[in-house]
Design goal:
single chain, about 170 residues, alpha+beta, 5-stranded mixed beta sheet, two-stranded antiparallel sheet, about 35% strand, elongated, binds zinc ion
Length: about 170
């Protein structure tokens, strides 16, 4: 499944086009690397518009439920990611300059003739990813030693002596 998702931003914006679809997480290698295997699909929607200054604008929204590992109990959890952004293409723009009026949800990038939607969707999801995911309510793993499994984990010698007894 490698459908072409390259658009011509100038035409896309001028014609006020809209594109929506779904992508498998596996089709986004950088995202796939950051989440647990078996994460579901990503849905995206992108629409073109012309900004008040006459620049090419793209409005992107993404949504996905991805598998992450809880930072507290180390069990898996499903994290819902939802994010949206406006991308403005400006001829000769410096991607790394931060214009004063640039907000968190607006990006200014240099104008390009062709743009791969997949890259945009992947970037946006990576930005939406929490730094440390955790369940709303859960406890840290029990390392008090009462649980035989965690005791074995703490002391390889304890585990060894248990094996010898058997
Ligand atoms: Zn947890």
């Amino acid at each position: 499944m490698s459908e072409q998702l390259v658009i011509e931003p100038a035409r896309f914006a001028r014609e006020g086009r809209k594109l929506a679809g779904r992508l498998a997480v596996d089709a986004l290698p950088r995202l796939a690397e950051a989440v647990q295997p078996g994460s579901g699909e990503v849905s995206y929607e992108i629409s073109g518009f012309i900004t008040s200054k006459g620049h090419i604008g793209l409005r992107l929204s993404v949504s996905a439920a991805v598998g992450l590992v809880c930072n507290r109990c180390l069990e898996g959890l499903t994290q819902q990611l939802d994010s949206s952004r406006e991308i403005v293409l400006v001829p000769g723009a410096d991607e790394f300059a931060q214009p004063e009026d640039e907000s968190d949800t607006e990006d200014i990038i240099p104008e390009v003739a062709r743009l791969d939607i997949r890259e945009l969707v992947e970037d946006e999801l990576l930005l939406a990813m929490p730094l440390a995911a955790h369940h709303d309510e859960c406890a840290a793993p029990d390392v008090s030693g009462e649980d035989p499994l965690s005791a074995a984990r703490l002391s390889p010698f304890a585990a060894l002596s248990r094996l010898k007894k058997d």
